[in-house]
Amino acid sequence: MHAQEAQHGQVDIVGVSCYSSNDLLSWRNEGVVLHGEENNLSHDLHKSNVLERPKVVYNNRTGKYVMWMHIDDANYTKSSISVATSDSPMGPFTYLYSKRPHNYERRDMTIFKAYLIYSSKGNNELHIVQLTDDYLDMTDGMRRILVARYREALALFKFRDIYY
Questions:
Q1: CATH classification of 2-163, choosing from 3.30.428.10, 3.40.50.150, 2.60.120.10, 2.115.10.20?
Q2: CB 86 within 8 A of CB 99
Q3: Comparing C-alpha atoms, which of 121, 85, 86 is closest to residue 101?
């Protein structure tokens, strides 16, 4: 995330930057692919709000890149997810909406294939939900896992047919 430090200790939203690499050692800054909002105070991307943990996934069916991210207000009471789309991983991304999935707070998150995994209940449980076919929303079914086990900065991977 590209950001500027605010006087009150928060980080102003400037936007989400994209970096590319051919070898995972040398990186090139591709610029800001989703810009923050300077003037509209009620917009989720207003510079006074919080944008964290952006993740981009490609949808083979629609040919779109879909960005999911944590959006919050300066006091961390909004605790929502938001979605933006683009025809290119280098943007520009178009901001679509924010919401609280299944009426739960949403904090740290990751995307794995067609699944959104996020922490909730003060990071004391994880929720897993399948995305819709276009990856623009979540399905109704949600599973709670690792209940009463504090988790932050989660990541998911598969090794020998087991998901970790």
A1: 2.115.10.20
A2: no
A3: 121
Query: Residues with Cβ < 8 Å from 41, sequence gap 6 or more?
Result: 48
Q: Tens of pLDDT along 114-126?
A: 988 877 655 567 8
Domain edges within the chain: 2-163
Q: Which tens digits make up the pLDDT trace of 3-13?
A: 444 444 566 78
Burial class (CB in 10 A: 0-12, 13-18, 19+), 11: middle
Q: What is the pLDDT of residues 44-96, one digit of tens each?
A: 999 999 898 899 999 999 999 999 998 988 888 888 889 999 999 999 999 99
